[in-house]
Structure formats: structure tokens, C-alpha cells
Amino acid sequence: MSLYELIFGFTAATKAKHPECFTATAIDRHTCHRTTPMQVLSLGMSRTGTASMHAALTILGYDTYHGFHFYSNVLDTDMWREAYESKYFALPGSPILDYHFFDKLLGHVSAVTDIPAASLGPELISAYPDAKVVLVEREIEAWYKSFHDVFITTARSAVIPWIAWLDSAYTKRMWWIGEKGVALGQFGARNADEFAANARSTYRNHYAELRETMKSRPNDLLEFQLRDGWKPLCEFLGKEVPDSSRV
């Protein structure tokens, strides 16, 4: 998915690749509850292969939540906003980020990958102590280039804030997650230049914090790279290696 597509509409190729994004629903997650156990927390940063991890976990039988899922249920962004406000801005009245909260927001899935979930890694680990944790990491400069091309380029756009102002029901919700939740909250960036300047240190700190969080549970943590293939992932999760040629 690209910035162009967000503004001007999605291509047939994107719709075919991610059909779950284009089945529009209007579910208020505040009213939901857990219907399946949370089993896998794939908490690598966005642009480290989260779409591939979504595909892999889905093949292995997990109902998996990726950041692009709120394109099909925009109301999800309301609870994600509450989560960012609670963690990064400590706003009065913000919810406690425990299993009660996440069972509403993520109760319909058994695995997560990508942001917004990756922005809330320690909280999800605390909420679901029985879940396995997977960290997918890339060489930092390769990651930065990919991240810059998507996130920071988008942050420099003068068009999206205007569209968000005009479309409060949809685009404004998406814009808030990226501009306020991710950029200002997780990356401490007030503008695109700070977003770029803070990116590498935020990336390093993200992985360091999660490794420290999992230090007491080393057997529940897999450090994984996509080039490792199916075997280490399947062994870690207790799954048979599928016929698919690659993760």
C-alpha cells in the first residue's frame, strides 16, 4: 500500500494481495471480548517484513492482526488511539493497557504483527504472558531506507493533513495513528525532520527494550530473520513445516 493509493484509491493488485482490507466492517471493539487465545506476538518494527510474517502466521493457522486490518474496520483506530494516548501521553482518563483492554481490541485474533501492536510490545507481553514472542529484525540501514521511503515521506506530505481535515470519519483517524501515535508518541518526533533523526535510535531502543522484557522468559523468545526460512519458526511454535517454499 502506498501514499498514492491512500489518497487516490487502491489498485486491483493491492486489493488482490490484501483482500481482508477491503471487506468493510463497522465493529466497535469496545463491545467485544476474547474468542480465541492470544498465542503469538510478532513485535518487530514495521518495514522488517511484517506483511510476510502476517502471511506466514496465517499459513500456520493463526488469525493474525496486521496494521493494514484497520483499513477494513476503521473503528479499530479509536481503541488504538486510546492505547497510544495511555502509553505515550498519559492523558487523564486513558485506559489501563492490560488484558481487559486488549481482549476487546484483539480478542478476535490469536497473533499480531506490525504497528500499532509493535508500538505496545511490553504491554502486550504483560497482558499475554503465555504467548510466544517473535522479533524480526533487519540490518538497520536497510530498514531505515524502507522506513524513510514510506513513513517519513508520508510525514512530509502537505496533502494528507488537508484530506484528514476534510474526511474526519476515515482519513483523520488513520492520520492520527501515524502522525501522533507513531511519529510523536513512539518516535518523539514533532515533524518529519525529527522523525528521520530519531528513527535509528528508536529502532535500537525498541529491540533492546523487548529483549530486556523477555530476559526472564528466554525460551518464549525467537529472534528471527525471514531468510532463516520456515524451520526455526515452526520449531519455535510447534508447527509442521508447510509446503510453501518461503516465509
Order of helices and strands: HHEHEHHEHEHHHHEH
Shape: globular
> Class, according to the CATH hierarchy?
Alpha Beta
CATH superfamily: P-loop containing nucleotide triphosphate hydrolases
Mean pLDDT: 92
Instruction: Write out the strand line-up for the largest beta sheet, numbering strands in chain order.
Output: 2-3-1-4-5
The CATH architecture is 3-Layer(aba) Sandwich
Query: What's the total helix number?
Result: 11
Largest sheet: 5 strands, parallel
Integer tally of domains: 1
Please provide the count of β strands: 5
- What structural class results from the helix and strand content? alpha/beta
CATH third-level topology = Rossmann fold
Oligomeric category: single chain
pLDDT below 50 for ≥5 consecutive residues: which ranges? none
Radius of gyration: 17 Å
In terms of DSSP E residues, the strand content is: 5-15%
Helix content: 40-55%
State the distance separating the first and last CA atoms: 20 Å
Structure explained in plain terms:
The chain is 49% helix and 6% strand. The protein has 247 residues and is α/β, with parallel strands linked by helices. Strands 2-3-1-4-5 form a 5-stranded parallel beta sheet, with helices on both faces. The chain starts with a helix and ends in a 10-residue tail after the last helix. The mean pLDDT is 92. InterPro entries: P-loop_NTPase, Sulfotransfer_4. Pfam families: Sulfotransfer_4 (PF17784).
